[in-house]
Amino acid sequence: MANRARTASPNGFPEERPQGDWILFCSFRGQAVTFGAPCLGGFGTDLYVMRPDGTHVTRMTGPSSLFERGDDPYDNYHPSWSPDGRYLVWTHVAYLPHALEGTQWTILLSRFGVDRAGTPSLGAPVVVAPGGDNAYETQVWAPD
Questions:
Q1: Residue 144: predicted pLDDT
Q2: Which of 111, 119, 25, 30 is nearest to 74 (CA)?
């Protein structure tokens, strides 16, 4: 099958979209340097989605994301679908040099979309909790 999910890199924490059409997961795939485990803190985790049958694996975050700064290590973890499946929220950590404010923890929210060709993407992220050298993390959405 074309576009079949590869299991060469550590993957973790799959979460099905409420509509049942996409599975969100964390992975180290494509990263040269990693630490810890995908979605558990450390660095090198990116968010991916795929179809339930393992096709259309798509990287949703990465070095070219709007919220990454150059070659600084980062981590994206604890993602969660909104109850309606239209948004993703996750914790982003940027490990910046001390001279550039040091480690920055941010909670990001982005709209999830799929174009006519079936390619998923994230909209421009909105900062829900501003960056700072203080640790906080996302959990699951409240029912309300």
A1: 65
A2: 30
DSSP 67: T
Query: CB–CB of 88/81 below 8 Å?
Result: yes
> What's the pLDDT score for residue 108?
92
Two tokens at 128? 């829900």
Q: Which one-letter amino acid corresponds to residue 79? A: P
What pTM value is reported for the model? 0.87
Alpha carbon distance 17, 94 (integer Å): 27
Name the phi and psi angles at 24, rounded to 5: -90, 140
CA 54 distance to own-chain centroid: 18
pLDDT single digits (tens) 48-76: 999 999 999 999 998 888 777 777 889 99
CA angle 29, 2, 39 (to 5 degrees): 25
